[in-house]
Amino acid sequence: MAKAETTTAKMNAVAKRRDAACKALLQQARGVIGSEGSGEPALQKLKTMLIALAAQGNALFPMTDFAMPDAQGRNHILAVEDGDGMGLYLTIALPGKEAAPHDHGIWCVNAAISGRELHKFYRRTDDASRPGRAMVEEIGQSLVAPGLGMVMTDHAIHDTAVVGDEPAIGLALYGYALVRFPSVVWFHPAFSSTRASPSRRQMEVA
User: pTM here?
Assistant: First the structure.
């Protein structure tokens, strides 16, 4: 019984430290966004902060605290601002998980705890005059691995793929919490087509 109580106490202590660290990061991020906006220079500062938090690894983010997904991936809430604010998540993507090119409609910053995930970036080359049709071209890529991160400004387009046979586990900071996400636009380069998921903002922000 004493051993079990000691283990529980240690788990609670880690959770408290993690909660404090994540809330502190949101507060610092809000200061940067409030004074500098959400352009790439500001997001690069947030990336540095997020990489430092991710570097805490098992000290703050032991995987015994986070359920693995049954398939593909899973997001665990770490901290969410009140009102229409930012959301910070621990993300898990299993080997083989891929996501087609898409536009979140809002900025995001990622940093890796473990594993590797490749992000490719695109730009739209058509004039968006034909509903359901779109053409995109690749303009760059970034590997998110321990010590590395990536940033996406509003309406940037990227795809993702887990690299190797280990899950990609990391931190993701979004300009809106996931429950308040705008419509996500998906692009299908092979078919020059696009589709949009419903916005979550009207219901949650109202």
Answer: 0.90
* Pairing mode of beta strands 185-188, 98-103: antiparallel
- Residue 163 CA to residue 129 CA, distance in Å, equals 36
Q: Which residue has the tokens 């000290």?
A: 59
CB-count exposure of residue 12 (10 Å: 0-12, 13-18, 19+): exposed
> What is the pLDDT, as a whole number, of residue 8?
59
Q: Are 46 and 88 in contact (CB under 8 A)?
A: no
How many DSSP H helices and E strands does the chain contain?
3, 11
Q: Distance between CA atoms of 45 and 149, rounded to whole angstroms?
A: 11
Closest C-alpha to 168, from 53, 56, 66, 90: 90
The pLDDT tens digits for 126-157 are 998 999 999 999 999 999 999 999 999 999 99
- Stretch (H or E) spanning 10: helix 2-36
CB atoms closer than 10 angstroms to residue 57: 13
Q: Which of 184, 198, 187 shows the shortest CA–CA distance to 133? A: 187
Q: What is the pLDDT of residues 167-185, one digit of tens each?
A: 999 999 999 999 999 999 9
Q: Cα Rg for the chain, rounded, in angstroms?
A: 18
Structure token digits, residue 191: 């078919």
